Amino acid sequence: MSKENGGWRRLWQKPGAKWRLGIPIGGLLFFVAGALGTVGFNVVIHETSSDEFCVQCHGPSKFAAEEWPDHTHYNTGSGVMVTCADCHVAKEFVPKMWRKITAMKEVFYTIKGDYNTREKFEAARHVMVESVWEEMRGNDSRECRSCHKVERMDFDKQKRMAATMHKRMMESDPSAEGYRTCIDCHKYLAHNKPQTDLAKE
């Protein structure tokens, strides 16, 4: 073994005081950087899921927010507070990150001014609601189910029709033809109906 290689070997076997000091300092700096990054990331995710952020950065949200207090998902009998993110952002990490990424198109439309007036918003509302409904059908109303558990419903306390539909949904295969998920019956809990005939149901 060369003298040079032997020197490196001795350094690892018997490091000097300065070398030993660098290991805990480096580890501590790495830990602090990781902790700050994690906290910062969570703060950003939390803040970008707030109603205030949604309304400022997602153009259509401004007009949707104006009508929200008139609907049952704002004035709840139980006093439970429902926010934009409860219905439009997944709780699970990967779907949540995907929603954050795909939401950038809404920011782009806002910058372009596609929905910056009530008239533009109403003209495009049917397209937007159909897109949201299709997404919710595709994930079996995942965000609805984060609060509403069909398996824990007391059907005896529901109206007969509601109980029948909820039982049917619980017992059905989501991949079966004609399967109906939450959004198929509960479309206007937070927003007005489109002023067109294209989304009538």
Automatic annotation (TrEMBL):
<keyword id="KW-0479">Metal-binding</keyword>
<feature type="domain" description="NapC/NirT cytochrome c N-terminal">
    <location>
        <begin position="28"/>
        <end position="195"/>
    </location>
</feature>
<feature type="binding site" description="covalent">
    <location>
        <position position="182"/>
    </location>
    <ligand>
        <name>heme 4</name>
    </ligand>
</feature>
<feature type="binding site" description="axial binding residue">
    <location>
        <position position="191"/>
    </location>
    <ligand>
        <name>heme 2</name>
    </ligand>
</feature>
<keyword id="KW-0813">Transport</keyword>
<keyword id="KW-0408">Iron</keyword>
<feature type="binding site" description="covalent">
    <location>
        <position position="84"/>
    </location>
    <ligand>
        <name>heme 2</name>
    </ligand>
</feature>
<dbReference type="GO" id="GO:0020037">
    <property type="term" value="F:heme binding"/>
</dbReference>
<dbReference type="GO" id="GO:0005886">
    <property type="term" value="C:plasma membrane"/>
</dbReference>
<protein>
    <recommendedName>
        <fullName>Cytochrome c-type protein</fullName>
    </recommendedName>
</protein>
<feature type="binding site" description="axial binding residue">
    <location>
        <position position="106"/>
    </location>
    <ligand>
        <name>heme 1</name>
    </ligand>
</feature>
<feature type="binding site" description="covalent">
    <location>
        <position position="54"/>
    </location>
    <ligand>
        <name>heme 1</name>
    </ligand>
</feature>
<feature type="transmembrane region" description="Helical">
    <location>
        <begin position="21"/>
        <end position="45"/>
    </location>
</feature>
<keyword id="KW-1003">Cell membrane</keyword>
<feature type="binding site" description="covalent">
    <location>
        <position position="144"/>
    </location>
    <ligand>
        <name>heme 3</name>
    </ligand>
</feature>
<dbReference type="InterPro" id="IPR024717">
    <property type="entry name" value="NapC/NirT/NrfH"/>
</dbReference>
<feature type="binding site" description="axial binding residue">
    <location>
        <position position="88"/>
    </location>
    <ligand>
        <name>heme 2</name>
    </ligand>
</feature>
<feature type="binding site" description="covalent">
    <location>
        <position position="147"/>
    </location>
    <ligand>
        <name>heme 3</name>
    </ligand>
</feature>
<dbReference type="GO" id="GO:0019333">
    <property type="term" value="P:denitrification pathway"/>
</dbReference>
<keyword id="KW-0349">Heme</keyword>
<dbReference type="InterPro" id="IPR005126">
    <property type="entry name" value="NapC/NirT_cyt_c_N"/>
</dbReference>
<keyword id="KW-0249">Electron transport</keyword>
<feature type="binding site" description="covalent">
    <location>
        <position position="87"/>
    </location>
    <ligand>
        <name>heme 2</name>
    </ligand>
</feature>
<feature type="binding site" description="covalent">
    <location>
        <position position="185"/>
    </location>
    <ligand>
        <name>heme 4</name>
    </ligand>
</feature>
<feature type="binding site" description="covalent">
    <location>
        <position position="57"/>
    </location>
    <ligand>
        <name>heme 1</name>
    </ligand>
</feature>
<keyword id="KW-0812">Transmembrane</keyword>
<dbReference type="InterPro" id="IPR036280">
    <property type="entry name" value="Multihaem_cyt_sf"/>
</dbReference>
<dbReference type="Pfam" id="PF03264">
    <property type="entry name" value="Cytochrom_NNT"/>
</dbReference>
<feature type="binding site" description="axial binding residue">
    <location>
        <position position="186"/>
    </location>
    <ligand>
        <name>heme 4</name>
    </ligand>
</feature>
<dbReference type="GO" id="GO:0046872">
    <property type="term" value="F:metal ion binding"/>
</dbReference>
<dbReference type="InterPro" id="IPR038266">
    <property type="entry name" value="NapC/NirT_cytc_sf"/>
</dbReference>
<keyword id="KW-1133">Transmembrane helix</keyword>
<dbReference type="InterPro" id="IPR051174">
    <property type="entry name" value="Cytochrome_c-type_ET"/>
</dbReference>
<comment type="similarity">
    <text>Belongs to the NapC/NirT/NrfH family.</text>
</comment>
<keyword id="KW-0472">Membrane</keyword>
<dbReference type="GO" id="GO:0009061">
    <property type="term" value="P:anaerobic respiration"/>
</dbReference>
<feature type="binding site" description="axial binding residue">
    <location>
        <position position="148"/>
    </location>
    <ligand>
        <name>heme 3</name>
    </ligand>
</feature>
<dbReference type="GO" id="GO:0009055">
    <property type="term" value="F:electron transfer activity"/>
</dbReference>
